[in-house]
Known about the structure:
alpha/beta; 10 helices; globular
Amino acid sequence: MTTPSYLKWLVDTGERQATACGREIEIWELNPQDDAEILSNWARHFRNHYIADADLPFMAGGTGLGHPDYLRTILFPDAKVAPGPSLRSGDFGEIVVADFIEYFLGYWCPRELRYQDRWNRNDSTKGCDVIGFKFANEDNPGPADELFIFESKSGMSASGANRLQDAIDDSVKDRLREGMSLNAIKRRFFDRGEMGDARKVERFQNEADRPFRRINGAAAILDEAVFAETDMAATNGAAHFNQENLRLLVIRGPSLMKLVHTLYERAADEA
Length: 271
């Protein structure tokens, strides 16, 4: 897969903040520019999480809808009717975090099936938000292999909530969701006859017999205004079950909800 060109707009600010429990929060910035080509590439990458372009003519066929209206009314979360807008911002955050761990950190991160298998466009997919896999040696699984599970929370408008704390608290639930989420991903690959990928997921289903390293992450994708009003120093991850391997990430950016809607509209219009 080609690295999404928009990722050049996602940069490490170098800023680090400490939590109440002494952990480090990485602060990254997403600062899109007015570049039509990159925005189009980003919109296509975004759209392909919901449907492959090659599948779009058949799936839209018979509905009486053109591709843009099919995407807007059948696949994409609603732009105005709740919970559509919050689902849009949540999906956006998850996709950005998935791209972060895949292209910046080098994990295999199969995530399109999470959105393509969604029956209700205005209902979030259950389970762990983002799962990444890394193999020290794909031909010989060993304890150096890594399973990275990230919980993502978006904050696009002022609410008074600490979205990074919300992500940490929900990440605690991943201890129970992990097994079901891995089974769901494996099942999706199995149903598609992609047995090689199903086996790669299977490698992480029995830690007792096949040890690996587990890393958990909590991410907050925040509009600049929300970031400015959030007391990051009050964030506490001391209660997390995997606190020794807990990565904390904040991605901030200007006018993010406007960007989210722009991407969805471009993804539909250019289909």
